[in-house]
Specification:
Two copies of one chain form a homodimer.
Chain A (H helix, E strand, L loop, with lengths): L2 E6 L7 H14 L3 E7 L1 H9 L9 E5 L10 H7 L4 H10 L5 E4 L3 H12 L9 E8 L2 E6 L9 H18 L6 E5 L10 H11 L4 E6 L3 H4 L4 E3 L2 H26 L3 H20 L8 E4 L4 E4 L6 H17 L1 H18 L1
Parallel strand pairs in A: 1-2, 1-4, 2-3, 4-11, 6-9, 7-8, 7-9
Antiparallel strand pairs in A: 5-6, 5-10, 10-11
């Protein structure tokens, strides 16, 4: 089966200078992959000309006259940027000309546009952002990472269904474990929203393992951890902050004196092996789930390796037909609920 | 001025076996300090007898016949454990026989009991938990870390006042910077509660610096970061989780082969220096602010060094008369609000 992915080539901090080499990198690994570059034709042609690539025949181009700025209001981008690279890439998915799209652009605008163009799946109130974070035992998928600032218990339940189906498909786990993020494991803890969501989950066919806490993300206590977007975003950013501070302190200590520099030189291969295990680039590519189509958000500052990873995520989700699976699972959950 | 601190000697995972040696450690550093050990007299006497300490004359004992279990419901502890070591220690603060109390016991029970016995300060709806977390530039005080599962904009504003006054007193900063934790720095982002709190802060005499994100805790963007207790607790636990996972990976990489073990041996002093900078024991001792008295919560699993740190926090807050300062500042804020 041929796969086609549309790339918002103008999105992110680096635009085509990252998107084009990342595209060629992924094309070399996937002979069945076709890519559509969406963006300013002149700029794209210049960037493509800078690379000689045997896979260039599997790259096509679609011109878009506008770009969405990183600080633009989602509502304004939706209204005023109907020919942006982001919008045109999503339109390609809507029209069935691409199986998925990948963008490193403005998260809010990408979500608003994707929701407007593709629509949500039946039974889903709000899409969510899901990504894999590293854990001691492998990785943990967490959602919502910031699409919604508040969530009802029903929405948290929908997040759990979407997360469970996605992880089941992408990680080949038949019944992924799902935990609900709370501030204690005891049943009486937490706000009304998580308490109510816990009841819905316990009564469902989801493999619900109960309340989990922030540190459980990195312990691998559950395959999927569910929370509202405000909490998930703070957890993600706090975690990035700690990891970055620790990296800073390690570098500082190894640069403190001649002796520690020498030690750092000797320890370099070990430290590099360690860094690979928590390399945020390996975890780039968050999915917008709950839409009638596959949209992958890359980090805005992604480099070539990180953006390649986001394209690979799109390929994995196309192969596993994630939106269709979520839709089917939701139908069975909803019909069960009606039968009760 | 003599200082008296009451210690809940039975609290935490280790009870007197940690509290007693920690007490002697801190007594040696503070000749003006008097400590009251509260707990089972037989057990305490046995533990005290195991240590010979020149400062033993500055230790007194108050018997308490009960203990609050770590998993006990706060409401049940309050109702059924009126002679618990925790309750008796707080009663000593209430009666003015101690200037502060320190407990490593059940957080919920400690907060409920402290609130019931000591009462909140005028103008404060709900007490909050505040602690210093390490940052690239020093440390950042964050509140609320879990006393409240939801907060109104007015309560977030009160947290900001309390945090600002505490940091001003303890860190000798005349006008500490205060940030409001959100999921983006733009004004349109976030839920209604943080947006409304932002308006209250911008109109106040607090040195408010705007919205901050999770990673700003560790960047040192603001002296004080304010959030509701659910979000704060998740941020704290996620951060602990990441730090612990990174520590695990570092140890694993340095144990992978004979060569990496040898490198680890050479790198040990550097790695130790690094670890000291993020040693969670150095950050032990969270304050319950907003009460008519000083209550310090130590981590339940605290060792001697960590528990000593919690006692030192109590001493610092007594010296700076933190509750009185918060009360005075609130009065001036409230009278300003009335004048408008």
């Amino acid at each position: 089966m041929n796969l086609t992915v549309a790339l918002d080539a103008m999105g992110g901090d680096h635009g085509p200078s990252v998107v084009v080499p990342a595209a060629f990198r992924v094309l070399a690994e996937h002979p069945e992959l076709y890519l559509i570059m969406v963006g300013n034709q002149g700029i794209l042609e210049a960037e493509l000309a800078r690379h000689s690539c045997p896979d260039a025949k599997r790259v096509s181009m679609v011109h878009a006259s506008q770009e969405v700025r990183m600080d633009e209001l989602p509502s304004q981008a939706l209204r005023n940027k109907k020919d942006s690279s982001m919008r045109v890439a999503i339109d390609l998915v809507k029209r069935g000309e691409a199986h998925a799209c990948v963008s490193a652009g403005n998260t809010g605008a990408l979500m608003a546009t994707a929701r407007f163009v593709l629509k949500t799946l039946p039974g889903i109130d709000r899409p969510a952002i899901i990504a894999a974070l590293p854990s001691v035992t492998g990785h943990t998928h967490v959602l919502d990472l910031g699409a919604n600032v508040e969530s009802t218990p029903q929405q948290l339940f929908q997040f759990a269904v979407m997360g469970s189906v996605l992880v089941s498909a992408v990680d080949n786990i038949s019944r992924p474990t799902v935990g609900l993020l709370n501030i204690g494991q005891e049943e009486m803890k937490g706000n009304e929203s998580v308490k109510e969501a816990a009841k819905l989950l316990a009564a469902s066919d989801i493999h619900y393992v109960g309340f989990v806490e922030g540190d459980d993300i990195y312990r691998g206590t559950a395959n999927v951890i569910v929370c509202d977007g405000f909490v998930g975003n703070v957890a993600l950013k706090s975690s990035e902050g700690v990891a970055s501070m620790i990296g800073h302190f390690i570098r500082q200590e190894f640069r403190r004196s001649f002796w520690s520099r020498a030690v750092g030189f000797i320890a370099f291969p070990v430290l590099r092996a360690f860094r690979r295990r928590i390399d945020p680039r390996e975890y780039n590519g968050a999915s917008f789930v709950g839409l009638r189509g596959i949209v992958i958000k890359s980090h805005g500052g992604a480099d070539v390796i990180a953006f390649s990873r986001a394209i690979s995520e799109a390929i994995a989700e196309i192969r596993k037909n994630v939106p269709e699976r979520i839709s089917q699972h939701l139908e069975s959950v909803l019909s069960q609920a009606e039968a009760v």
